[in-house]
Specification:
The complex is a heterodimer of chains A (471) and B (473).
Chain A (H helix, E strand, L loop, with lengths): L1 H31 L6 H11 L6 E4 L2 H6 L2 H8 L3 E3 L7 H14 L4 E5 L2 H6 L11 H9 L4 H10 L5 H5 L12 H11 L2 H4 L4 E3 L5 E4 L33 H16 L3 E6 L4 H6 L3 H15 L3 E3 L24 H20 L12 H7 L4 E9 L2 H4 L5 H4 L2 E10 L6 E8 L7 E2 L2 E5 L2 E7 L5 E8 L7 E6 L1
Parallel strand pairs in A: 1-2, 1-3, 3-6, 6-7
Antiparallel strand pairs in A: 4-5, 8-9, 9-13, 10-11, 10-14, 12-13, 14-15
Helix pairs in contact in A: 2-7, 4-15, 5-8, 5-12
Chain B lengths: L5 H16 L2 H17 L5 H22 L6 H28 L6 H17 L8 H9 L12 H10 L7 H35 L3 H32 L17 H7 L2 H12 L8 H20 L3 H19 L1 H10 L6 H24 L3 H13 L18 H22 L4 H6 L3 H18 L17
Helix pairs in contact in B: 1-2, 2-6, 3-4, 3-5, 3-6, 4-5, 6-7, 8-9, 8-17, 8-19, 9-15, 9-16, 11-12, 12-13, 13-15, 15-16
The chains are: A alpha/beta (471), B mainly alpha (473).
């Protein structure tokens, strides 16, 4: 009986050791993991609390949880729809969420949004911890399972495992910032956090987004500074828009759906023309995905190719920013999506001609208009201040304004002004160098206020578009 | 594969588990295989150097031992033995020289000395030559010590390998080894790496004054935690495998004199120099002048061993000089303490002695840390020229990568280190003290220590721990 006693003694020690470690990890996670603004927390909670069987599942990035309202779709198709999208959802996340959903529900149809940023970044960027947090946020909310463990092990390179398994390690930079910890603890003591509500507020503290139903996140914002604008960082879609790691999981999703008799459809939610035109050759992406879809016989619908007479979400008041629809836009799009799918399923030909064959064709076909503008800080001092010595450059800041339009460059008229933040409105017109649809604004580094750019097509009745950024 | 690397954290448990699972007769072979794997993981070419040194010193020691039985006159035998020894010394030290100054081979500085120490022991007849090549190869390549020491002796590790008792599984070895490894990781990851942030920033920018003084004090602690941390990990890893690896540090900063400091700092290297250089040179047996000359030779040699710049030579020279001056001025020092009646306040006297020793040793570290002797002198000059005490409380001390709260935390960890060292100095070991506690408290403390390393360890965004300072030697 000695060995039994010895075994029990060792087991007790291991248990105490394990419990202490777990308690410390839990405590540190509570203090440091800031998921108070994390929508995935609410979505996963809704998912685990879902009692009714989910028939149709929507996977994808923030475009999906902002754009698709399952309640609207429930009304249209009579099934139970659930939106399981999460911020920057990469295909590895989509795959594991699909498995998670299928474990609990008898899935009938899955709609996977193929947002090019996620497929281009794919898992390739999991060697860079800056790109992992959105996936980690989902992991934090998943219940323990083999699927979760597999997701954790495959998500990143082994050198980041410690951050995957101990969430608080991702916040190491905040380790010695008591103010940060106090802020997190304060937020976690509110009813909003405790009851898994979602109340995203803007900088002024106004509620701009709340918890929807079925994984939908209604957003009430409209573009803050004029039309869709501001710093869009160009992410040219190269010739290989689906990186190998993303491809691996795309194929896994296809195979999983086949094995489990789930009907898979690829979709792409609408984005603004501003965003797509700024990001380079979108047709490359469409071609690549179309080929894959044909190869694997997956229905594929890119709603960016939709003709406006069928789906028109072009007005600026349908958007919160250049990539996400607000609640009004989501209503329009969800309704269209529901009708479109229903028509396809019933074999109706109502929407047979609703797509352009390419994005280029769409842009060519639209009447001439300004889609928005891109305003980014620039370092082109030599070009803008040719007669100035280098030492004097530091006294100036330059912004590059690019007007995104399908009109000829010479038809664009640009004007700029700086609205001071002082009580009385004070307006100043900075120096502007315009070269077709691109302009450079030269400002003193001491300039404060809002840089407002107005663009208009010459000889048209079209209202001017404007955008602004805080200096 | 550094011992702080993620790969090692996976490698080590597998090694230990397999070591105790396989039959006893294969355990040494297993250790040899994993030791070579560990060493070759740095660079496969390093293996040739290690294997070459192993083969040469193994055969050389057997040859020297064989000469004892060779039927020739004693005079001839001694000459032959000496000739063999010089030949081996030439091979070993030219390899060391080549590895250090021409092609950097990690760990070569340590195992070359270890191998020559073994040859010397055989030459002196204090150790019998090891007939089993594989056992001797394991003695030199034992993975916890191969990269940065401690420099083992034939009387310690080799004897344990010969005994073979270590292969038995003992739960205490696992527990104690694990705790020692944790403490080693704590010293390296929590203290040394955190100090490195500040010290590196100050040495890069050289703001001088109090910043440089604080950086110099902290560097003394950094290099201690870095090297003693590694050594403690090595001792702990050895313990988990059943071996008593030589202790390399014994609370050196609590030493009362520089000589005592060197008996407590990098003890395996100091011991090596003492036994194989200082004593053969005559030690302190040939008069005061010879003794001082021998001390200077030993410390200059130690400086050269550390690197090929003037800075290392000055560092070694300074440490030798401290000891020579300390010994020569002994009567003056005693008179001063009598005049100041320090013998009445023994504790204060002891604290003062430790503080002075720390200041002297720490001053020498400036040459060790700086990029060159010139920049060390610039650093020393700037300490005086830009001296401004207000930076201690105006917050500007915290603009070198460590904020006020983190700095406070760092001081706390240094205090913890001081307490552990004080206990060690008084021969009260934490592991022994812990044994008296309730098992639950001990277990909780162990878990807390593990989590302290995980939480407060500085290992970069992608687990990118700075390498150990002594890897460079």
């Amino acid at each position: 009986m000695m060995w039994v006693r010895s075994f029990i003694s060792r087991f007790k020690k291991l248990l105490v050791f394990g419990i202490t470690v777990i308690v410390i990890i839990k405590g540190m996670n509570y203090l440091f993991v800031d998921d108070t603004d994390e929508f995935a927390r609410t979505m996963m909670r809704d998912f685990y609390e879902e009692e009714e069987n989910i028939d149709r599942l929507y996977l994808g990035s923030s475009h999906v949880f902002c754009d698709i309202d399952p309640a609207v779709l429930d009304d249209i198709n009579g099934d139970h729809n659930f939106n399981m999208a999460s911020g920057n959802q990469q295909l590895i996340t989509s795959y594991h969420l699909l498995v998670e959903a299928d474990r609990k529900h008898d899935l009938d149809k899955v709609y996977l949004d193929l947002y090019y940023v996620c497929t281009v970044m794919g898992q390739g960027n999991l060697h860079d911890p800056q790109q992992i947090p959105n996936s980690w946020n989902v992991i934090n909310q998943m219940k323990p399972s083999v699927n979760k463990l597999s997701y954790m092990l495959h998500l990143s390179d082994p050198e980041y495992y410690y951050m995957t398994f101990m969430a608080f390690k991702r916040y190491s930079k905040e380790l010695f910032h008591p103010d940060y910890v106090a802020g997190v603890v304060r937020a976690k003591q509110t009813d909003v956090w405790k009851k898994y509500e979602y109340a995203y507020t803007d900088e002024q503290g106004e509620s701009v987004s709340t918890r929807g139903t079925g994984g939908y996140r209604p957003d009430y914002r409209t573009p803050e500074y004029g039309d869709l604008s501001v710093g869009i960082e160009e992410r040219p879609i190269d010739e290989d828009p689906i990186v190998p790691e993303s491809m691996e999981y795309l194929i896994k999703i296809i195979e999983y759906c086949k094995e489990h008799d789930i009907e898979l459809t690829w979709i792409v939610c609408p984005m603004s023309e501003l965003k797509l035109l700024c990001n380079g050759a979108y047709d490359n992406y469409i071609d690549q995905v179309s080929k894959l879809a044909a190869q694997y016989q997956i229905p594929y619908y890119d709603f960016n190719l939709c003709k406006r007479e069928f789906l028109d979400v072009s007005p600026d008041h349908y958007w919160t920013d250049e990539g996400h629809l607000n609640t009004y836009g989501a209503e329009v799009y969800s309704r269209f999506l529901g009708d479109f799918i229903k028509a396809r399923e019933s074999g109706e030909d109502t929407y047979q001609d609703c797509f352009y064959s390419s994005y280029e064709e769409k842009i060519r076909d639209l009447r001439e208009e300004i889609f928005g503008m891109e305003i980014l800080p620039s370092q082109e001092y030599e070009r803008c201040l040719p007669n100035m010595r280098k030492e004097q450059w530091r006294e100036y800041q330059i912004y590059r304004v690019r007007i995104v339009t399908n009109a000829p460059a010479e038809a664009v008229d640009i004007s700029v002004k700086v609205e001071k933040d002082t009580g009385a409105p004070e307006i100043k017109e900075p120096e502007l160098i315009q070269e077709g649809s691109v302009a450079y604004v030269i400002l003193s580094v001491h300039e404060k206020g809002t840089l407002c750019v107005e663009a208009k097509l010459k000889d048209t009745m079209e209202a001017a578009k404007w955008a602004g950024i805080h200096l | 594969m550094a011992v702080t690397s993620f790969t090692f954290l996976c490698f080590f448990p597998v090694v230990v588990l397999a070591y105790y699972c396989i039959p006893k007769r294969f355990r040494r072979l297993w250790l040899l295989a994993v030791s070579y794997y560990f060493y070759l993981s740095w660079d496969i070419r390093y293996g040739f150097v290690l294997l070459g040194i192993t083969a040469v010193t193994y055969c050389g020691a057997l040859g020297i031992a064989k000469l004892d039985r060779y039927p020739v006159e004693d005079k001839v035998r001694i000459r032959l033995k000496k000739g063999c020894l010089f030949l081996l010394a030439a091979v070993v030290f030219s390899t060391l020289f080549g590895c250090k100054y021409f092609m950097f081979v990690i760990g070569a500085s340590f195992y070359t000395l270890q191998s020559f120490g073994y040859v010397m022991d055989v030459y002196r007849g204090t150790t019998k030559p090891e007939p089993d090549f594989l056992r001797y190869a394991l003695f030199l390549s034992f993975f916890p010590t191969v990269v940065s020491g401690p420099i083992e002796r034939s009387a310690t590790l080799l004897r344990q390998l010969q005994n073979g008792e270590q292969t038995a599984f003992r739960e205490d070895n696992i527990k104690q080894g694990f705790c020692m490894m944790l403490w080693g990781y704590f010293m390296k990851l929590v203290i040394a790496e955190r100090i490195a942030i500040y010290v590196n920033a100050v040495y890069d920018q050289n703001p001088g004054g109090v910043y440089a003084i604080v950086a110099t004090i902290l560097y003394g602690i950094q290099i201690y935690c870095d090297f003693a941390g590694y050594s403690t990990i090595a001792v702990g890893a050895g313990r988990m495998l059943g071996f008593a690896v030589t202790e390399n540090f014994a609370a050196p900063y609590l030493a009362a004199t520089v000589s005592e400091f060197w008996r407590r700092w990098h003890m395996s290297l100091t011991g090596w120099f003492r036994d194989y250089l200082y004593i053969p040179l005559g030690g302190n047996r040939k008069g005061r002048i010879r003794k001082y000359a021998n001390i200077m030779i030993v410390f200059l040699a130690s400086g050269i061993w550390h690197g090929n710049g003037w800075k290392y030579l000055i560092w070694g020279g300074l440490n030798g000089f401290y000891q020579v001056a300390g010994d020569a001025l002994m009567p003056v020092r005693m008179r001063i303490s009598r005049v100041l009646r320090l013998e009445r306040a023994k504790k204060l006297h002891r604290v003062l002695q430790a503080a002075v020793t720390f200041v002297l040793v720490d001053f020498a570290w400036i040459f060790f840390r700086a990029d060159s002797a010139g920049s060390a002198l610039r650093m020393i000059r700037s300490m005086v020229s830009a001296f401004d005490l207000t930076v201690l409380w105006d917050g500007s001390l915290y603009r070198f990568g460590i904020g006020a709260v983190e700095f406070g935390f760092l001081l706390l960890t240094i205090l913890l280190l001081a307490i552990v060292d004080l206990l060690h100095y008084r021969k009260r070991y934490l592991l022994h003290i812990m044994k008296e506690w309730h098992w639950a408290v001990r277990t909780c403390l162990c878990a807390c220590m593990l989590m302290a390393v995980v939480i407060f360890g500085v290992y970069g965004e992608n687990y990118d721990v700075g390498s150990f300072i002594y890897f460079a030697f």
